Amino acid sequence: MRLDGFGLLVGDMAKMIRFYRDVLGFEIREAEDTSNVYLVKDGTLFLLYGRSDFEQMTHRRYEYVKGLNGHAEIALYVDTFAEVDEAFRRTVEQGATPVLAPETEPWGQRTCYIADPEGNLIEIGSWNKPYEVKDLK
Hints:
The chain has 3 helices and 8 strands, in the order βαβββαβαβββ. By secondary structure, the chain is an alpha/beta fold.
């Protein structure tokens, strides 16, 4: 099996599309009024599924966490420490919920956390080097 993408089950599709597209720069692949919305970020497929549509399709009811939730995180990378600070400031100004202001961790990464409109955690981090070489020793 190969990883094709990942997704979130969402309550307010329009609000979540606007956040991921307009605040975080994800590219939307079809009309906003569909029940399953495909977005792409840096070649990775990101899906938003309408909760009620998914429940209808699977013939089940699910429970959803309200507010900030720690079930998973989405990690985004920027090339410099200054970009971490700028991304945090900009996304919070555009409606992201601040969770952890930028700080440099003992292991050398500068990181911060925000949350999307439905409380899903998003990390923005940097090793202060370009993405293409960040994992090279």
